[in-house]
Predict the 3D structure of the following.
Amino acid sequence: MKPWKKLALLLLALILLSQIPFAYRRYKLGRLHAVIQQTNSQRVAMLDDFVEYKGAMHVHSFLGGHSTGNFNEIIAAAKSNQLDFIVMTEHPSKNFSTAEMTLKGVHAGVLFINGNEVSTAQSDRLLLIPGNGSAADADRHQTQQVITQAKVANAMVFVAYPEEFKSWDSTDYDGVEVYNVYSNARKINPIITFFDGLWSYRSYPDLLFATFYQRPAENLRRWDSAIVTRKQRLVGVAGNDAHANVGLTLKDTSGNTLLGLNLDPYERSFRLVRVHALVPSGSTLDAETLRAALAAGHCFIGFDLFSDSSGFRFTGANAKETRLQGDEITLESEIRLKVTAPISSRIVLLRDGNAFQSESGVTGKEFIVTERGSYRVELYLPQLPGSLSEQPWILSNPIYVK
Ligand SMILES: [Zn+2]
């Protein structure tokens, strides 16, 4: 055999060998797909005094500059995901009010709230819900000033990108975005994602998320410790931070797309993680009731890609009353914390951020606690393959035992 042929064969063998891990990762995604289907078929229904609405928070359109997404795409993606609400959070513009111009009210049966994402003079980032024209000036004001102004205007304020937030001592903010898809996606290795994409994108585009999804351990710690330090309620939410602009694209010199691997088109982003809000039955979903539910922490985070988390409930009861996640309850002799899950799962109860008790393979659990503290639960699906069984499926809001 001629030397160049040997070399060519050797190269070919090396290329094939290098692809084995990615072929195996595609096989693993296929297994995950099968497990998710089976898990979803085992759901149990939930009946109580609340109606659950699911939606996506922290969504950008073309208005803010970073995104190319248009309103029709966002509405269509919400519809195809059967979402009830979307919280828009447009970057402000110096020349016009993006909050006024973005989606608000009901479109095609989906409720939209028109928020802003702003950066303050201290480079802290906040979600203002709803936003307003003054968002454009936020970068000239101190964080506390921006929060106070928003509260005066009757808006909710959430800390975005808590990993970069410096003003935890501020007062009056409502909550923290403890998980953000975009922040998580920024940790991906582009080379691994490229080959995962080649092997798996066509068959399992959604499940590529599973290859990098990680429990937001540091942000959960920041949230838990802010609650302990400030001795105040603080609502946890997740942000899709959907821009429809994350991915890898190869274009030829005339701009034709040779390979387009968009990791966050709205439709896919809305499928990964959702905020589920609980509105008292009898009242309808509108901007008012949704904002009340979010501000009260009557909501939870569900990584619904792995199974629809609808039906999850977390309540606390003393001898006199039963309260919901997000609420405070007075400790008498004991508090009964009740968790109900739509699917058999591992339930971990945390007190002030520390794992406290857990139970596996159950759709319900009652924990009796006798100490004050903020109690929240994380639910896991041990039936998911590999390290996904170690990543949370549901993150509740806390019940504050006072
Ligand atoms: Zn954003």
Observations:
- Residues 12 and 122 are 53 Å apart (CA to CA).
